[in-house]
Every structure is written in structure tokens, then in C-alpha cells.
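hey team, just a heads up i'm posting the complex here instead of the shared drive bc the drive is being weird again. everything in one block, sequence lines first with there labels, then the predicted structure for the whole assembly after. its two chains so it's a bit long, scroll down
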Amino acid sequence: MNLDFNPEEIAFRDEVRAFIDENYPKDLVGMGSREDLTREQFLAWHKILGAKGWSAPAWPEKYGGTGWTSTQRYIWSEENARVDAVMPLPFGIAMVAPVIYSFGTDEQKARFLPKILSGEEWWCQGYSEPGAGSDLASVKTTAVRDGDHYVINGQKTWTTLAQHADWGFFLCRTDPDAAKPQEGISFILVDMKTPGIEVRPIITIDGGHEVNETWLTDVRVPIANRVGEENKGWTYAKFLLAHERSGIAGVARSKRGVEKLKQIASTEVIDGKPLMNDDSFARKVSQLEIDLTALEFTELRTLAGEAQGKGPGPESSILKVKGTEIQQRLTELTLEAVGTYGAPYYRGFPNDDSSNEFPIGPDYAHHSAPMYFNMRKTSIYGGSNEIQRNIITKMILGL
Amino acid sequence: MDFNFTEEQGMIRDSLARLIREQYDFDTRRGVVASEAGWRPEMWAQFAELGLLMAPFSEEDGGLGGGSIDAMIVMEEFGKGLVVEPFIPSVVCAGGFLKHAGSAAQKEEHLAAIMGAESTFAFAYAEPRGRYNLADLETVAKKDGAGYVLNGHKAVVIGAPWADKLIVTARTGGDRRDAGGISVFIVDKSASGVTTRDYPTVDGRRASEVYFENVSVGADALIGSEGEALPLIERVVDEATAALCAEAVGAMGVAHGMTVEYSRQRKQFGTAIGKFQVLQHRMVDMFMEHEQSISMTYMATLKLDEDEVTRKKAVSAAKVRIGQAGRFVGQESIQIHGGMGMTEELAVGHYFKRLTMMNSEYGNVDHHMRRYTALSAGEMKAAAE
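-- predicted structure starts here --
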């Protein structure tokens, strides 16, 4: 056991750091947690990494992965967090792609993977429905065969950033008479420009437009766009969720967030002294940092296990639960730190200044309340934290 | 980065686990704890035969060439078996002082004896009014010719009834709570002027109040430099704390496992209580606390040889997290066992008691939270300057 980087790893870190310094877009430094970016802003770094061949470090090399060790991947996320980089979105790289390369046909791999890598095509996730949230297996959207097509009808919801999406992966019921709800679901790739798809915005409590309702009316999709076997989609859906969870811990980004929080608390003043010197506040920051260290080393142990061929298993549920709790506590403490200047709200408010700058209060306060509100999503999405506990109950405790 | 044990470390763990399974079952332990001696010197000798007591020492000191990771492995297994024998006081603490700062003659005289279980040490550092401040010492060692004369009272010295020698911290200069003026001595428990009041502890061990009344020791009793021992004491106590974290990890894992198993067997309302989601989620929370405690123990142990601030922050972070986790896992284990958890007859209560007492050993959660926070503030100040 040791925590050292070997000379190759130190050289790798230097190479990565230099690449980021030279190529990361300067106007996107510090924007990694923002959800109100344009399509171009979301894709800028992804496209640069795609051209470099670094957009999907976790993929197998033969599909375009980097072949990095778990330690190199750790270094990679640490280095990106130094600039709080806007990383490639998970829907293509981390979610649908592992399903395609693990269960898809050669044609599907050739058609979809290169454009996921390059950032040319944007993906969205058609999982949840109004009646199927935590109980995902009760999806009602149907896909009925008609010649060499499926005809899809139904409603999906919480489709993140679907307003930008070129493609979506959808869970549809292909056998309404299956004995169990988990059976009879298929995993289908849908071109979002197909007639019959309507994407309607949902505005969330932070005022942002991040999620949508997606309505599907007689949407005709080639049967060739189904991944894997018909009616076995639940298997692929669960596989995808385990992959989604392992990236969800967000350790490097939260470490950067703690640094920002400390800077804010050193600037804010209480009784004439920095808030960071206030014992009760400082101890809350310490607790957060300590819990983050526990998460970091739990993730490192998981990565080390993966390097030895253990796929992301139910242990990744711990990373999801603890990672999201920490992300939430971080925004909670940041909002606490800025005091009353968390209140001014500017989105959509007409002001004289034609730029987006809002002239009230310190800059660091501007997003603190919306970020806090927005991050409440994290313990709900990707399988709520209660569902994660159900998974651990079943898969690890065996109860 | 590497989170694997070496082949030798794996062997140490497996053979120790087997020995504890075969000769340290719960009923045997209860008998030993209730006996007059309160421990089994013959078991201690068997641990020595297995090489456990040599494992954390370098080859040039006569050990097996291991270090803190080996101590971690041993203590996790000790935690699983609620082993009472004094590995931390004798091997980690006394051994630590000797290997870091002992003279060649001191090493020669004491290290082989510790490793061979011929001599057993206890670490007399805490005082009735010092709480967790290692520098808050009323015990005084006054220069007397070439040697020293000790006077004072050390509190709850774990394993002292079984020890023939003591490591004693005392003030040779400075004022109470000063960082300077602290020294460390090796004192024979049979030395004239040393008296003890021995007693059992609530978690099945033995301890003593140790009184020093004009106890004379020679110059060769001093470990390291006179008056400059605080950094050394802090280092050894950090190493002991990391080992204690490993013990907590072992105990937590067993308490959790017993609780899950009990929830499978125990039926109420016509069904196993482990089918109730409210209990399932609590057992999952216990599982997550245990997993994070493993992570923190690795983290702290692997940072013990780094610079002082990094080491102290790592150990305090681990002790905070594990103190919180141990309390949670212990309390929930009792709660989910219901009335049976309250009985002396079931093992789970004994794990709860041990986990509870670990929290106050080498500084509780509040103490380590304060230390961590102060060190963080110091780092921020240094970065700003």
C-alpha cells in the first residue's frame, strides 16, 4: 500500500496540466458547476478533448478510451478541477456509450461512438416518466412493432438538457403482457429530430431551464436502433445506472468547491473578523472536508478494485449517496457564508446594464442560492438516495 | 498509488484471523476478562511466535521490515476479536518511542524483549487534569545528578497491570501546558516509589492509576533529548491513534455483521425484521459508515510518515470520522438487536462498549475536530502570507 505517484504518473500529471493550461477555454474557467451555459459552452472542452483523444478516459481503448490507469484517471479529474472545467456531459460519454459498446451491434458502435467521443452529437436520457420515478420499471411509454420500425407513444420527464439533444436513449415497453414489470422493456435509441417528438421546458426552483418533458406521439424508430435484445432493456438500464453512479461522486470538483467556500468565508466578516475564524462555522467546514476525504479514499479504493477487473458494482451506491450529500452540504454552507446577499435574484430581471452582470452584492454570492436550490436534485436523480439504500440492502447486505 | 497488501501482509492477516477464530471465541474471551489476570500471557507469547510483535519494525531493529500498515492489519483483526492483549501500548507506543528516538543501547535492551513478548510495556501519558492535551503535565522529572527523580500521577494507564515497564511523559522544564520542557522516560514498574491501583475497565481491559513518589531513574532512562519530546510524543500518539482506528474498523464490521444476521433471524409481526425498510436503511447507513472508516484508516496510516501538519490532519480527520462512525454503528447495533442487545450474554454489547471507549482514547471527536480546524487555519494563514 502507498499513496505515491511514480515518475511516469508525475510526468503524466505535468503533461495533463500543461495541456489544460494551454487549451482550456479561458472564458470557461470556474464554470464547471453552472447549469445555465449555452450549448457551445457545454461542448467547448468536450470537442477539444475529443480531438486530442481524451474525451472518454473510462472507455476501453479499442473504442476510443485512453487506456489510463485508475491513478491516471484520478490525476485527470484533479487537474480538471483545478480550473473547475466544464467537463463532457455524462449522457453520451458515461451513460449510453458503455451500453452501446457492451451490448450494441458493430453497426451501432460504428455509427454512434465516434460522434459521442467528438462531441458532435448530444445525447439525452429518456428514463423517468410521470408515473415512473424511483419505480423506474413501471415505465408506460410503448414501442409497438410496425414492419421494421417501432412506433413509440408516451411521455418522458426530467429529460436533462433535451432542448440541445440530437439523440436520446429511451426505455420503452415492448411487451405489455410480461409477467414482471422489469421484463418487457427495451432500450431504444431515438433521433430527437424524428417527427412526433415535442420537448417542453420545466423550470426548476432555481429558476433554470435544465430539464424538460418529452412527449412522443407515433414516433417511428427503426428496429435496428434497439440496443441488445428485445424485452431485456432493464438489464441494460441497470448496467447504465451503475456506470452513472460511479462518476457521480464528484470528489475533485467538491474539493475545489471547499477551497472556494474557504475563500468566501475568509472574505466575509463577522464581528469584524473573517467568518472563517468563527469557531462554529470553521468546524462545519472541517466536518465537510473530513467527510470529503472519506469519500475520496472510498472512491480510490473502488477505482483500485475496478482496475483489478471488478466492474462498478453496488459499492458505487455509497459514492452516489455520500458524494451527493457532500455536494449539497457544500452549497448549503456557501449560501450560509454569503449571508443576506444570497437573496438578490437576477435571472430575467431587467436591468440597465446590457451585460449579464448583476451589480448587487459580491460576485461570489450571485449563484449561491440558485446553486443550493439546484443541488437538491442530486439526492433525487440517478436513483434517489433511498433507492441506493435499497440496492445496498439487496446486493450487499442480502436482506 | 496502491491499495493492495503484500503477500507477507496477507499471510499475517490470515494466520492471525485463524488464531483468533480458534482460540479467542467470545466465551473464551469472557472467561479471560473475568479471570484474576484479565489477559493470557500465553496468548501474547503466541502472537509473538507468529511474528506479529516484530512486524512493524525494520530489519535492522530486528523486526520483519514492516511498519504502520502491519500494525493496522494486526489491530483490525484484534478489533474483530475484541482482543485485550496490549499491542498498541507495548508494540506501537513503546516500540514507537524506541524505534524513532531510542539510543542503540535502549533498543538493544528493550526492542527484542518487546518483540519476543518477554517484556511488556504500558504508556503512562494521561493525567487526571490533562484531558487530551499531551503537554498538560503535572508529573515532574527533576534533574538529580546524572539521573532524574519523578513525581506525579498518571491516569487510566491501559495494560499497566500486565506491564513490567512503563513509558512515562514528564515535565523537565517549562510551565504546565508549555510545548517545551517535556521529556520521555523508561521506568521499571518495580522501581522503588512506583505504586499502582489496578482495575478492570468497562470494555474488558485492565488499567492502573500509576503514582510516582520520588522515583529515581538513571540518565539512560531518558528517550531522546531532554525537554524536546513533545513532537516525538505527538508522532507516537498519532501512530497509536491510527492503529486504534483500525481496531475500530474491525469492531464495527463485526457489530454490523452481527446486526444484519440478527435481523435475518428475529421475527416480529410474522416476518424477519430485516425485511423492514426502516431497519434496512439504517443497516445500510452502518455499512456506509464502516466502509468510510476503512477508507479513513488507510488514508491516515498511509500518511503517518509525511510532514507533521499532513500527518496530524490525516490522523485527526480519521479519528473524527471513525469516532462518529463507531458511535453510530455501536448505538444502532444495540437498537436493532432490541432487548437482546441490552444483555451481557450477547457479544454485540461488548463490541458497543469497546467502540464507545475507543472514542475517548487518544482524543475524542471534539478534540480532533479542534486540532484539525486549527491546523487548517494555520495552513490558510501560511498560504496567504
